[in-house]
């Protein structure tokens, strides 16, 4: 681990200010991902700004009947919240299917969104990785791994985003609130938070440097059933081969892309009467497949079909 | 030399007057472990503040180090030393034995510029803190000339040869017998590389007192570790005091020492202060041994009556280019089922992978994953219940060497297990049972693992407080050694458990072979019993010779020991009173066990039967174990709790082998893909539903004076096959390439129309 300096932010504005002014600064909240990466020197922040104790952990009803989840609310707290469980159960299901109880106790809502890929080549610093070192190349491209992306991947990166929570939030049409370096509050759809890798896989979100996620806002209770389903090798502490969040007619997919994937084409096909299989055929028509990850096509298709049925029950 | 007949005499363990033998006694060191008072090697506090060493692993699999730049590392904060092959202190060449009776030769670290596997320690940094050493280790710049690694095991079978000194075992004429069989099966299974993933990574702390090296490390066998370190350091064997008091799992991976120990000792000598060195979790994956992958071809030929006419299990496996390990996955098949025509053997490929080595139930753990599934498939072809097929092929004597079995209760394990598990509810046709979204199936498999007894010594002392101290150069790798030694001592000397102290894990104590091959309890325990019997004799003689004792003048052979009291008919006194008066400095005696000269006349195994109920999600191909039961026959059980933990732990490993564990090499780099516990999956709590292990009443009087056998590896043998067979019963899909993950199961499920 590289030496670094540390400060505990007094409020959100001061945190953002410090982030802008201090070279090599990173926010830290639960630290469940960042600290591991720092120990491996994959992340080498020179300065940590601890936002974990800022008073942004409350979950409040919004005037329009939605919920505003503070960015520092722990994953455990969100998953256990009675309003989340009754009105947004897909979110609760998604959160508890990720990580482990200990990690969820520490992990924050904002941090969960910003966690980094679990691609094994990202973690093995003896191998080239464009995320770690832009322009170095991608060892995963010719590596025989099942964990790679089938949607939106590039020649520079085939990593997938590991979050379960984010998949449910995309299906819920959630939005993100942030504090920008200029001190303004900005709000935008969570679906627009993450980037596809393109030629710059080291850039994972559209946040501007120093911008701090302060909350995630859920719109009012959506119509229709909700269901989250995740397929993985073992029953706990394993990332998804594929996952599906269904909220009414909306579908989001996990484990398939560099970001939580809103299956808009499939939604449109379903709305015009296609079967789930037909709809997923449309959604995955441009999927880029390798021998090891080709199973994700039938897997995701079958999961969507089954999850739509379950959500409708 | 003793004979097994000598073991038939009664002894306190067999008599079990206080009922301690077999009881589920809590772990002797349990309170220390749960309160953090049982330090692992790295946590031992040395006599002065230690420095911290960090190893640097090679980033190529095969080649040479051509450039070394340690300028930046040496200038980093707190750095005390930076070593590579260019400046490491001189060590004797690998394998050197200055003392001809050393149980291990020298194991030099950083021995040359040659790299033979990815992750091989090639540089070493010592600093004042772990953090400084870790940071500086990243600053060591090495350049290499690398060759393309040769690691593609399935495509290198052309290079496979007979393992050194071995030959195939053929009885009858296998090919003719197979060709003439009514019903045939010829299938191939593959198993992947597995890593041990002990809770405690390999670690050491060493310091010097004059010319003597004191080293705490995490190792299963004390003497080879002590001797190997002495040979490496070029000092006398008695000049190494090696300790391994508490060990966080071994599983065979700590049957040897690694460079952490060598480098800690060398650096402590060079720096004149204690040095701690540990492998990181990531370094463990390459820097220590693994269970190698196998390709296993099983051919079974049977008559329509279900009797096997021909049986063959051939295994291809790999080891490191400089190594000599063979995964003997075919061996167990020589003892398991009757068949007149038999062929078993192994082929070995040397590759540029890290070192292969022993992992829990080496041989059986991999081999049962093929043969025990093949028996399931054959049963289906024959229209027989899998248990009935096994019963029809139950041998009367060992099918290869013709020796009688010392004990063989495999059929009873299967029958009792079937009853307890509800095997009669299994429908022979797959895919018939549904519970919600899950397809439910039942499977079973047999378990077998050899039983061994090795030479060992032990000492017993009694002090003026009547406390019995057991001392032995034995180890407890989480298995329960401390506890069973305490039970044997308490029962033998007739004292409560609270009056027994156990000291193990120390090279200066009477030697025992350590933990491995499930020989630990029988070997160490038998030596303990012998020492205990000698102490009884010494105490009895002390009492009858002491005019102050109420036992004075009596027959020492008639003295009894119970409840801390020594008695002769109606005359008695407490053990403490006797010792305090007649031998205030206490008494110490030794005892030893040796294998009986005629023990080889019997085929000696432990047996079991696994039963498993799985759910298969036909949509996703996910598999979850709902229920699992093992019934085992493994001699007298010393401790119902620790033995059960051993067996269920082995069973869970079987679940892992069937469903989760495996590490694939990257063919370009020669490294393994799984480098941490997030990417290398072991079975977790949520993967296993109900789990139980039952131990049949058994005493194997050919095994040792106590009639006990090992259980540490038996639970692993066959468990994965029971899971795989249950998967087939649930959904009708056979996957013969372990682990059975959703990506492998899904095509079959789709083809079946699920």
Automatic annotation (TrEMBL), chain A:
Keyword Flavoprotein: yes
InterPro entries: CO_DH_flav_C, CO_DH_flav_C_dom_sf, Diverse_Substr_Oxidored, FAD-bd_PCMH, FAD-bd_PCMH-like_sf, FAD-bd_PCMH_sub1, FAD-bd_PCMH_sub2, Mopterin_DH_FAD-bd
Residue ranges of every copy of the FAD-binding PCMH-type domain listed in the record: 1-223
SUPFAM superfamilies: CO dehydrogenase flavoprotein C-terminal domain-like (SSF55447), FAD-binding/transporter-associated domain-like (SSF56176)
Keywords: FAD, Flavoprotein
GO function terms (MF aspect): FAD binding; oxidoreductase activity
The UniProt record lists the keyword Transcription: no
PROSITE patterns: FAD_PCMH (PS51387)
PANTHER family, A to Z: ALDEHYDE OXIDOREDUCTASE FAD-BINDING SUBUNIT PAOB, XANTHINE DEHYDROGENASE SUBUNIT C-RELATED
Protein name, as recorded: Xanthine dehydrogenase family protein subunit M
Protein source organism: Phenylobacterium kunshanense
TrEMBL record, chain B:
Lineage of origin: Bacteria, Pseudomonadati, Pseudomonadota, Alphaproteobacteria, Caulobacterales
Pfam families linked to this entry: Ald_Xan_dh_C, MoCoBD_1, MoCoBD_2
SUPFAM superfamilies hit by this protein: CO dehydrogenase molybdoprotein N-domain-like, Molybdenum cofactor-binding domain
Keyword field: Molybdenum, Oxidoreductase
Domain of life: Bacteria
Aldehyde oxidase/xanthine dehydrogenase a/b hammerhead domain location: 35-148
Name assigned to this protein: Xanthine dehydrogenase family protein molybdopterin-binding subunit
Organism the protein comes from: Phenylobacterium kunshanense
Region (Disordered): 1-22, 88-109
InterPro entries, sorted: Ald_Oxase/Xan_DH_a/b (IPR000674), Ald_Oxase/Xan_DH_a/b_sf (IPR036856), Ald_Oxase/xanthine_DH-like (IPR016208), AldOxase/xan_DH_MoCoBD1 (IPR008274), AldOxase/xan_DH_MoCoBD2 (IPR046867), AldOxase/xan_DH_Mopterin-bd_sf (IPR037165)
MF term (GO), any: iron ion binding
